[in-house]
């Protein structure tokens, strides 16, 4: 459904010097600098897949999304959605995609929500019968009936997000781009939106590209993760593959009988590449299980101090991604 091959996007910017003299220099002899936001990016997404597209701020996610949606043109490379070039076939293409930007709305602020949907119906040229059928489905999945007659400006953030998702799905797109769809929402509303996205994907086989900083979205929604940094791919695989490959960082927490007992433990001398922190009687240790056996760590600790409680936790995806972008994990292509 989505085919990207050797995609590149380079921006040109003028470096301005401070002051009046600098402004004159920039006017008559501008200093040009080129910035590669996307570098030789390639991936494919089959029909019906939900792919998490993640990376640190400035990694190139937004630029890639804008190219895929037809807002920007690539410097070079191939980008096709359902066999169409987003830039060449703009009018036909936008009828096959839906886009939700978490911090921007496509709804008319002063109109009632149902009137907004009527306007979109005319824009997308949706027949009356299909529109009524579609609204029944979206009302059921996203629970819009409680506020569908209210002006958009009166909606809460969670209501507006559900309304925006419904607006993006009104014309039954083949591909849905979701950019931070749960940003700023409370836990209950996030769960409702995740369930709705999953239901729509399963019922209609809608291909979804999701960008988010909420890694719970990734774990609960995505079949696959595509991670980029500085415009380049650094990981492409499933959540389980990411954990299997890079989830060897374990965390052990000891609750000591006395906080002064920490003086009896010399982890840095005994073990290599270990980090620990102490808050009162609680000692939290992070280590690479491929280099340090957990039984050795437990044996050493319990032979030197008395503890009241022990907790062992495998690394979750948030910890793995955090270490990825702190450059503690070797990048793999």
From TrEMBL:
Signal peptide: none annotated. Pfam families: ABC_tran. Transmembrane segments: none annotated. One of its GO terms (molecular function) is ATP binding. Residues 2-255 form the ABC transporter domain. Keywords: ATP-binding, Nucleotide-binding, Transport. PANTHER family: ABC TRANSPORTER ATP-BINDING PROTEIN, ABC-TRANSPORT PROTEIN, ATP-BINDING COMPONENT. It comes from Pseudolactococcus reticulitermitis. The lineage of its organism: Bacteria, Bacillati, Bacillota, Bacilli, Lactobacillales. This is ABC transporter domain-containing protein.
């Amino acid at each position: 459904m989505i085919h990207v091959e050797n995609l590149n996007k380079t921006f040109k910017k003028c470096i301005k010097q401070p002051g009046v003299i600098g402004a004159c220099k920039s006017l008559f002899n501008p200093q040009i600098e080129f910035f590669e936001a996307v570098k030789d990016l390639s991936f494919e997404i089959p029909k019906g897949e939900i792919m998490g597209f993640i990376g640190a701020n400035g990694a190139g996610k937004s630029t890639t999304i804008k190219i895929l949606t037809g807002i920007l043109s690539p410097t070079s490379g191939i980008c096709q959605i359902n066999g169409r070039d987003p830039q060449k076939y703009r009018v036909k293409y936008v009828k096959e995609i839906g886009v939700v930007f978490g911090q921007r709305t496509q709804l008319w602020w002063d109109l009632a929500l149902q009137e907004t949907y009527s306007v979109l119906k005319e824009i997308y040229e949706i027949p009356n019968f299909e529109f009524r059928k579609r609204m029944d489905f979206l009302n059921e999945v996203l629970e819009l009936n409680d506020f569908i007659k209210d002006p958009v400006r009166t909606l809460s953030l969670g209501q507006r997000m559900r309304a925006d998702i419904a607006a993006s799905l009104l014309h039954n797109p083949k591909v849905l781009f979701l950019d931070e769809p749960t940003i700023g929402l409370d836990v209950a509303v996030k769960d409702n939106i995740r369930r709705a996205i999953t239901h729509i994907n399963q019922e209609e086989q809608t291909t979804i590209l999701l960008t988010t900083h909420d890694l719970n979205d990734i774990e609960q929604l995505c079949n696959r993760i595509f991670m980029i940094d500085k415009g380049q791919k650094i990981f492409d695989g499933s959540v389980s593959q990411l954990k299997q490959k890079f989830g060897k960082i374990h965390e052990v927490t000891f609750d000591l009988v006395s906080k002064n007992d920490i003086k009896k433990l010399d982890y840095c001398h005994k073990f290599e590449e270990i980090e620990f922190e102490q808050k009162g009687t609680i000692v939290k240790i992070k280590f690479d299980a491929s280099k340090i056996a957990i039984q050795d760590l437990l044996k050493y600790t319990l032979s030197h101090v008395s503890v009241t409680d022990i907790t062992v936790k495998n690394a979750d995806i948030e910890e793995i991604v955090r270490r990825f972008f702190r450059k503690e994990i070797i990048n793999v292509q």
